[in-house]
Design brief:
Helix content: 25-40%
Radius of gyration: 18 Å
CATH topology: Glutaredoxin
Number of domains: 1
Strand content: 15-25%
CATH superfamily: Glutaredoxin
CATH architecture: 3-Layer(aba) Sandwich
Strand order of the largest sheet: 2-1-3-4-5-6-7
Number of strands: 7
Shape: globular
Largest sheet: 7 strands, mixed
Length: about 160
């Protein structure tokens, strides 16, 4: 009985060390791994899911996230040209692009890897199971690219 406890404790210690040394989830996202800038994460002071998404970006994404709590995030959305139809509860600014909503790392990595001539990307709504949202993924997440003139089109489906 005592021997099993020591083995269990040993396994847990090894797991904790590995979690501290290895950034889980970043592997395979070369553009994110090489990104050296800071993410400006603009969120409304009353939003809870925004904090979870910013932690997802810093924890799983390994990004340096500067959370900016605001009374009103609409001026930031206006400044960066986020179309009204795609607006959500928070806006991140990553290397000059806006990232609107609960966008997964796959899409952010693609954005930083391809560096298209667009204003940003958006995942409208607050889909269940998306990073920062409770529940399980029960539908495709359609991520839109937004041109500098405010027009947008489907860019990626996850």
């Amino acid at each position: 009985m005592v021997k099993i406890r020591y083995i269990t404790v040993g396994v847990l210690l090894v797991a904790i060390v590995l979690l501290l040394v290895i950034r889980p989830g970043v592997s395979g996202y070369t553009a994110l791994e090489n990104f050296e800038g800071t993410v400006e994460f603009h969120k409304d002071m009353s939003c809870g899911c925004c904090g979870v998404h910013s932690e997802y970006l810093s924890g799983r994404g390994g990004l340096d996230v500067d959370v900016i709590v605001m009374d009103d995030v609409e001026p930031t959305k206006d400044e960066y040209g986020v179309p009204n139809q795609l607006r959500t509860c928070h806006t991140a600014i990553i290397d000059g692009y806006f990232v609107e909503g609960h966008v997964p790392l796959e899409a952010i990595n693609k954005l930083l890897e391809e560096r298209p001539d667009i204003a940003g990307i958006a995942l409208p709504g607050m889909p269940a199971g998306s990073p920062g949202m409770p529940g399980v993924k029960n539908m495709d997440w359609v991520i839109y690219s937004v041109n500098h003139d405010g027009t947008y089109q489907e860019w990626m489906v996850i």
